[in-house]
């Protein structure tokens, strides 16, 4: 497994890196997952340390967690506990999907844009109705069943997930509704 442990404006010592590798490895080993890589980023927000962890599994699923604490080790430990809870909660569902799925999730490439609206003025008509593109990047669109897409969205802590539906071979969207339920768009 590859670990990428970085600090944003923080020096990450060898002892912390060893602690992260040992603890995260133990969590993943406990659930017999096959991780491919893990990205752990430490930063400082005011007086607290922030730890963001993303683990990519060989099945194509991604688990993510974020935690804050006044000490850097405590921030990572809390983040590790959140990952442990996520993997424990979805252990049965992950195992069930492994039985049906013999190959890793197929990933397609797609474009992702961040749009910004122009200056808001009620008196002025905008010169063009085209939005300003602030960022343009490539993104990956997994080929999943609806159940796997919901699980992936919840594991990643994302509010929305765009995926290619394996059963209908079309692009679908699952999202968390304001009432807490999951919505599914199948055009």
UniProtKB/TrEMBL annotation:
Keywords: Cytoplasm, Translation regulation. GO terms for molecular function: ribosomal small subunit binding. Coiled coil: none annotated. GO terms for cellular component: cytosolic small ribosomal subunit. GO terms for biological process: negative regulation of translational elongation. The keyword Zinc does not apply. CDD domains: RaiA (cd00552). The keyword Lipid biosynthesis does not apply. It is found in: Cytoplasm. Residues 130-183 form the Sigma 54 modulation/S30EA ribosomal protein C-terminal domain. It comes from the Bacteria. HAMAP family: HPF. Belongs to the HPF/YfiA ribosome-associated protein family. Long HPF subfamily. Required for dimerization of active 70S ribosomes into 100S ribosomes in stationary phase; 100S ribosomes are translationally inactive and sometimes present during exponential growth. Associates exclusively with 100S ribosomes, which are dimers of 70S ribosomes. Interacts with 100S ribosomes. This is Ribosome hibernation promoting factor. It comes from Pelagimonas phthalicica.
């Amino acid at each position: 497994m590859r670990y990428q442990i970085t600090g944003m404006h923080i020096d990450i010592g060898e002892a912390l890196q060893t602690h992260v590798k040992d603890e995260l490895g133990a969590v993943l080993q406990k659930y017999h997952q096959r991780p491919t890589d893990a990205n752990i980023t430490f930063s400082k927000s005011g007086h607290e340390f922030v730890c963001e962890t993303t683990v990519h599994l060989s099945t194509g699923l991604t688990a993510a967690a974020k935690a804050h604490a006044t000490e850097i080790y405590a921030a990572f430990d809390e983040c590790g506990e959140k990952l442990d809870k996520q993997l424990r909660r979805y252990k049965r569902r992950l195992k069930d999907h492994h039985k049906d799925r013999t190959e890793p999730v197929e990933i397609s490439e797609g474009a992702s844009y961040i749009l910004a609206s122009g200056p808001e003025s009620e008196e002025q008509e905008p010169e063009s109705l085209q939005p300003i593109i602030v960022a343009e990047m490539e993104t990956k669109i997994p080929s999943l069943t609806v159940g796997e897409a919901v699980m992936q969205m919840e594991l990643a802590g994302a509010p929305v997930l765009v995926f290619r539906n394996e059963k209908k071979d079309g692009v679908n969207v699952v999202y968390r509704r304001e009432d807490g339920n999951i919505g599914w768009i199948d055009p």
